[in-house]
Every structure is written in structure tokens, then in C-alpha cells.
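Support request from a user on the community tier.

User writes: "When I paste my C-alpha cells into the form, the page sometimes reloads and wipes my input. The last time it worked, I copied everything first. Here is what I submitted, just in case something in the input itself triggers the reload:"
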């Protein structure tokens, strides 16, 4: 199927979401988890289309987003709930498929699981606890995603089905959630990952990180151009072509209703992170996008000029990791009431 001849940003932004890490205090973890649930509830009231949770292990951020989204599913009615992303190196695909299907059913078909591959972070330090007997045999590549997709789709999980005594067994993962397979997302930062996701019929989550690919312009790489090329490559290889879903997740901080103190902290946060955007970082040659801070009108203008944004019609803007609850309320409110409309978005009605 041919690629679209015009950038999708010539149309209004269709779907607006947000992403949070769900920070909590070591000595009082419940308060942080409760704050995250309240943020998702606020997002629904503001008309956001989706709320996404990031994943952290052995840190002070949400380690079990699927469990938290199960709770969120009972406190919301409309907003879609996603993970961005679950690193599959920490997961058993069959067990994860059971959890995902369960939460999808509890939510009424609102779950959007996003996953990624690769060895667990600090693998040599955690392998003894995570995979004490099978560490050398574990597959941390795309095959792990393929197993998950097959289980979610209803593929065979056991070699037996039928009745044994008083118990009845199924050949597939139960419960089965019809439609969930079409809401599986891959979090990719490279053309290789984008192509694999497309060839396997997944949706694509692209964020504020890409792998530096191609030749730099002068002495630097163009983040937006790289991201746009990856999105185009994804759609060119996807069975649904130009209709294949892609969500962008830049860090966006509107300041329309922020206090002077908040604006100063937001600008200092972005300035501290700016050096990493100037050149590829680490052995993976990861390139980071600058955080967008300022009035909504200014941010909208920058987004419309961003080659990656011009290829999408849905976003999940990432909230900064280290702010306070009142900051997130202000940022989400400004996104929903100022930035979203400036991008042509219309809030979803509250049910």
C-alpha cells in the first residue's frame, strides 16, 4: 500500500494520551501508587484518550504496571490504558499473556500493552535472582515477543485439552480476550525494530529516543528526520500500510497556567537534560529529543515543524519523571485545555 502523500499533521490530532513513570517513596510506596491512579482518573475527566505507564524494576517507579492498570480499570470507564513499555526480558510470555487478557477483560477492552526486547538492565547483577538456572538459555530477542503474540492471539499453549476428573483444561491461554491482539504495541527506536513490528502486525510506539542511523548532517544527527524515516519504514512494511497505528511520545511541558516557580523548575529540568540531545549516547548510539517547554502555542508550532510529529495523528506525551503531583495536574490540564486544541484535538466526552 502506498505511503500517504501528505503528512498526517495536515489533519487534526486524533488521539491524545500521556505517559507517567509512577514514582513513589521507598518508605511510603502506597502513596505514590495512589497518586498515579488519581492522575489516570484526572486524565479521563480531562478527556484524554489514553494513559500509559512506564516500567521500572528495582527502582522507585512502577514495577508492575499491569497490576496498577487492573486497579485503574475499576476507577475509570472510558480512557484506554497502556504500558510503554514492558521489557520482556523480565517476563514469562505465557504468564504475561494471562495477566494482559485478564486486565483487558476487566477494563472492557481498553488495554494497550506495549513491549520491548533485550536483556534486563544490569543483567549480570540480576540474573542470579531472575534466571538462576536458565540465564544462558533465555532468548531476549524478538522470539520472545512472537511467543507473547501467539499466546494473546489464542495459539496453543499446552498439549492437552478436555476433561480430567472434575477439571476442564484449555489448549490456549485463558481467559482469552478477543481484540487484544490488535492492540499490541512494540516500543522501537531503530528501523530494524520498526520493520519487525510491522512485519508481525504490531502497532508502533516511538518516543523521545531513537537510534542514530544514517549519515549526520554536518556534525550532528537530525532526531526528527530519523524518527520520521523509521515511521515511514514501519508503514511501508505493515499489512495496513498508511493506516498502521503509530504513537509518538515526546516530553512536553506546557506552562500556560504554571506559576513562576514551576516555570523556572521546568526550564531548569529541560536545560539539565539538553546536553544528551547533541550527540548519540553510549554504545547503543541513542539520540534523545529535546524536551519541549513553554506556552502551548509555542509548543504546537514546534510540533508542527517536527518531521516525526508530522507523520502521526496520535501521541502519548511523556510526563517528566521527577516532578510533584501538583505539577503533573497543571501539565495535564494545560495539555488537555490548551495544547491539545492547538493541535486540532477534541476531548473525548465524559461518560
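"...and here is what came back when it finally went through:"
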Amino acid at each position: 500500500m502506498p505511503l500517504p502523500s501528505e503528512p498526517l499533521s495536515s489533519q487534526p490530532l486524533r488521539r491524545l494520551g500521556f505517559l507517567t513513570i509512577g514514582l513513589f517513596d521507598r518508605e511510603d510506596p502506597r502513596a505514590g501508587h495512589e497518586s498515579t491512579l488519581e492522575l489516570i482518573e484526572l486524565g479521563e475527566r480531562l478527556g484524554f484518550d489514553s494513559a500509559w505507564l512506564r516500567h521500572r524494576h528495582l527502582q522507585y517507579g512502577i514495577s508492575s504496571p499491569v497490576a496498577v492498570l487492573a486497579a485503574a480499570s475499576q476507577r475509570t470507564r472510558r480512557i484506554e490504558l497502556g504500558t510503554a513499555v514492558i521489557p520482556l526480558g523480565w517476563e514469562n510470555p505465557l504468564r504475561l499473556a494471562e495477566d494482559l487478557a485478564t486486565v483487558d477483560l476487566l477494563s472492557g477492552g481498553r488495554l494497550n500493552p506495549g513491549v520491548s526486547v533485550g536483556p534486563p538492565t544490569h543483567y549480570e547483577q540480576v540474573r542470579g535472582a531472575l534466571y538462576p538456572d536458565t540465564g544462558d538459555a533465555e532468548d531476549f530477542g524478538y522470539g520472545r515477543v512472537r511467543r507473547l503474540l501467539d499466546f494473546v492471539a489464542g495459539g496453543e499453549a499446552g498439549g492437552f485439552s478436555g476433561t480430567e476428573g472434575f477439571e476442564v483444561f484449555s489448549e490456549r491461554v485463558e481467559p482469552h480476550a478477543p481484540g487484544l491482539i490488535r492492540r499490541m504495541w512494540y516500543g522501537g527506536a531503530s528501523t530494524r525494530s520498526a520493520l519487525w513490528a510491522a512485519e508481525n502486525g504490531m502497532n508502533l510506539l516511538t518516543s523521545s529516543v531513537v537510534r542514530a542511523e544514517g549519515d549526520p548532517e554536518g556534525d550532528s544527527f537530525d532526531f526528527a528526520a530519523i524518527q520520521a524515516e523509521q515511521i515511514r519504514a514501519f508503514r511501508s512494511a505493515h499489512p495496513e500500510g498508511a493506516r498502521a497505528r503509530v504513537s509518538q511520545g515526546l516530553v512536553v511541558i506546557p506552562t500556560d497556567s504554571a506559576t513562576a516557580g514551576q516555570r523556572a523548575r521546568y526550564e531548569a529540568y529541560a536545560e539539565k537534560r539538553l546536553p544528551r540531545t547533541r550527540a548519540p549516547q553510549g554504545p547503543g548510539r541513542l539520540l534523545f529529543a529535546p524536551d519541549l517547554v513553554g506556552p502551548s502555542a509555542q509548543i504546537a508550532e514546534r510540533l508542527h515543524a517536527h518531521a516525526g510529529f508530522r507523520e502521526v495523528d496520535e501521541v502519548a506525551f511523556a510526563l517528566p519523571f521527577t516532578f510533584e503531583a501538583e505539577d503533573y495536574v497543571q501539565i495535564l490540564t494545560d495539555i488537555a485545555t490548551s495544547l491539545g486544541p492547538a493541535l486540532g484535538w477534541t476531548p473525548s466526552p465524559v461518560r
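Agent notes: The reload is a front-end session timeout and is unrelated to the input. The domain at 8-122+147-156+169-342 is CATH 3.20.20.30 (TIM Barrel). The chain has ten helices and 14 strands. Escalated to web team.
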